[in-house]
Amino acid sequence: MRTSYDILKSFLRTEKGAAVEKIRKYLFEVDTKATKIEIKKAVEEIYKVKVQSVNVVNMPGKLKRVRTKYGYTSDWKKAVVTLREGNKIEVV
After folding, report:
1. What is the reported pTM?
2. What's the rounded Cα separation, in Å, for the pair 22 and 20?
3. Distance in angstroms (rounded) separating the CA atoms of residues 77 and 67
4. Which domains does the chain have, with CATH numbers?
């Protein structure tokens, strides 16, 4: 059984993520097999907030080159979590 910390891998702190925090949206890197319901429960349990909606995006790996060898970075899943009015995640 996966815990909430297994589902939410990291809090994404990017320029786009900082811009959408003003409208109560937060970006997370999540487990590739996690569902929207699991993500919602994990965010509510860890951050003690109420979630309004969850949107997910499967991000494909990028082509990278090291000297003469080519390869791909791993695919990953990004979740955009919208909180209910009056809720906020404190970012340090």
Report:
1. 0.91
2. 5
3. 28
4. 4-83 (3.30.70.330)
